[in-house]
Amino acid sequence: MNYHEIAAAAAFLAARTGIERHDAAVVLGSGLGEYASSMPDSITIPYEDVPGFPIPRIAGHGGTLVSAPIGDKSLLILAGRVHAYEGWDMSDIVFGVRTAVTAGARRVLLTNAAGGVNDAYTPGDLVIISDHINLTGLNPLVGPNDDRLGPRFPDMTSTYTAGLRWDLATVFNDVGIPTHEGTYAWFLGPTYETPAEVRMARTLGADLVGMSTVPEAIAAAHMGAEVAAISLVTNLAAGIASTPLSHEEVTATAASARSKFTDVLNRFLPLLVTD
Ligand code: HPA
Hints:
Blueprint lengths: L2 H15 L6 E5 L14 E4 L17 E7 L2 E7 L10 H4 L1 H8 L4 E10 L9 E9 L27 H14 L4 E7 L8 H10 L3 E3 L3 H9 L3 E11 L10 H10 L1 H16 L2
Parallel strand pairs: 1-4, 1-5, 5-9, 6-7, 7-8
Antiparallel strand pairs: 2-3, 3-4, 5-8, 6-9
Bound molecules: hypoxanthine (HPA).
């Protein structure tokens, strides 16, 4: 993890936007990136322009940074992420989040598309992530620790902080959607899970399965940022329904849930940027 590369990217953002400190950051997951273009008065920066930023390679994931004002605060939106299954190094996967936190973000909202393991979930549901299980054997903190970023052995007890979960639950309630909360199990992918893996994940206590978010949550927590995370359940996890899974199903469900997702973000982001 190169502290100077992260600091350089954060300094570039401050210079390009003219905003010394961004108060919070959002990472938009599969099929959810369009939200970024809805923000008024925003400044858009392609990832290619930011020194050190990894460029997403897969369709539907975008790759745009948006700096958007909310009241007298500033939000950074990262539309598009890179994944471990694409072969990226862990340091690349967390580069965006580390840059955002270095740029001032004390709170980070991570969003993703996920498979639903909990029987109470229906495709199209949004779920507040309350905790995670890392099933990949990967961790962005492996290697020498840079004490300027955070401690060698970070506590993970309250990664998804109670305050932000409460705020999200309040927003879900106001929008009129069920206030599901759940534990997200990180699988490496790019294969979807086998039915046996989904049964294992359920037995271990997972409510959701997916291929992202956890490394970014770890990196943000390492740096002392508060994390909130939302999964959009795009499909029932493998073996729960009898139909095969497909990326098309994932993106189609994400598209159909867009207005609900937009409602939630429109109400939650002002809370995220406020101290
Ligand atoms: N598994 C893993 N990742 C996913 C899924 C799934 O079922 N759906 C969307 N992303």
